[in-house]
Structure to design on (348 residues):
């Protein structure tokens, strides 16, 4: 069922096939230097097998960075299933994926990602214990989104302190792009902190609800990045910081939950040149994996453990921004370097 592929950038990569259930996918362990490789299971339609492989390789590498930046004793891994979650997902297929994960003996831990739900994780758990992101059970972590939003807000305070000399968000104007699981919680936290909100989503009902609940100004989704605001918080999709949008951004700082906000590495330099402070996404949005890690690591005092690590996100962001300012490079480059140093230190 598992065929090992030889890919030099990663410790272990497998193709997963199960004719009986129609399962096709990949599992990639980028690094286990800091601990078992952890990262979610994604199910989606891909144009080709190569595209699915490329996705799992990129995502698992990204998880090594995210887990290290969150200070967790976890490496980076990811799994993908090729198929339409609405049409092709069956309990038997999920259990087959669970059996594949189980054969890795705990070197890879899976959790929810795109196309997956806590109920799917429960199905997978019938075939393996190496699964988190469930909503039932002693250490179940449930929806990570509120914790992700708390981490983003903590990171934002680090950025505010650097830019304006105070981490108080009272009166700051934040433009929030995307009002889904994380975006809504972020709006709630910012509203409680006294921030002024402008919000956008492609889903008009979400915009209306959020505007009503938090007295937010509504903005069209294609212009939210360009409004006059102190902070832009991308909480929808990746690639929103690119050659077209960056010249239009008027916020002084960017800090949000979306993964892979920069379309290309050059976009970090574009932001630097424009004097816009970009807070690395994978550091700011580490709250979600911290929440999942509490389940993987069987933490009993979850609330205190999570809070401590969210504070550490703030401290790490402070450190990244201080180092970046000292050498006038993008905070993104500094964050990558810090992770690479941590991984190398373990290798030695
Ligand atoms: P979600 O799917 O609940 O919400 C995304 C929202 O963005 C939806 O309301 C959608 O209508 C909206 N949207 C889509 N395209 C848009 C556009 N072009 N302009 C404005 N709004 C648009 O997703 P969730 O869970 O809130 O995650 C948001 C982002 O944060 C994603 O990039 C996700 O990968 C990332 N993330 C989420 C974590 C979590 O704990 N849920 C953890 C770490 C990262």
């Amino acid at each position: 069922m598992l065929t090992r592929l030889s890919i030099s950038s990663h410790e272990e990569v497998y193709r997963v096939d199960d004719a009986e259930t129609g399962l096709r996918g990949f599992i990639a362990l980028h690094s286990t230097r800091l601990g078992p490789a952890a990262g979610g299971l994604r199910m989606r339609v891909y144009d080709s097998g190569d595209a699915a492989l490329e996705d799992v390789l990129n995502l698992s590498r990204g998880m090594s960075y995210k887990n290290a930046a969150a200070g967790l004793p976890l490496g980076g891994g990811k799994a993908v299933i090729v198929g339409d979650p609405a049409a092709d997902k069956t309990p038997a297929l999920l259990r087959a994926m669970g059996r594949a994960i189980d054969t890795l003996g705990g070197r890879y831990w899976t959790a929810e990602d795109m196309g997956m739900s806590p109920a799917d994780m429960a199905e997978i758990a019938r075939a393996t214990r190496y699964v988190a992101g469930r909503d039932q059970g002693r250490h179940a972590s449930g929806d990570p989104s509120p914790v992700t939003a708390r981490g983003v807000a903590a990171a934002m305070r680090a950025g505010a302190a650097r830019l304006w000399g105070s981490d108080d968000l009272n009166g700051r104007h934040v433009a929030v792009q995307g009002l889904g699981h994380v975006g809504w919680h972020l709006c709630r936290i910012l509203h409680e902190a006294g921030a002024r909100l402008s919000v956008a989503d492609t889903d008009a009902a979400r915009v209306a609800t959020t505007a009503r609940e938090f007295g937010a100004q509504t903005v069209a989704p294609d212009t939210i990045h360009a409004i006059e605001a102190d902070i832009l918080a991308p909480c929808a999709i990746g690639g929103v910081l690119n050659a077209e949008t960056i010249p239009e951004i008027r916020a002084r700082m960017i800090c949000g939950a979306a993964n892979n906000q920069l379309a290309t590495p050059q976009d970090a330099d574009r932001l630097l040149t424009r004097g816009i402070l970009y807070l690395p996404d994978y550091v700011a949005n580490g709250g979600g994996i911290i929440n999942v890690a509490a389940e993987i690591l069987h933490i009993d005092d979850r609330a205190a453990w999570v809070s401590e690590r969210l504070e550490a996100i703030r401290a790490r962001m402070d450190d990244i921004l201080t180092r970046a300012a000292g050498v006038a490079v993008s905070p993104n480059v500094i964050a990558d370097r810090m992770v690479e140093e941590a991984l190398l230190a373990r290798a030695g």
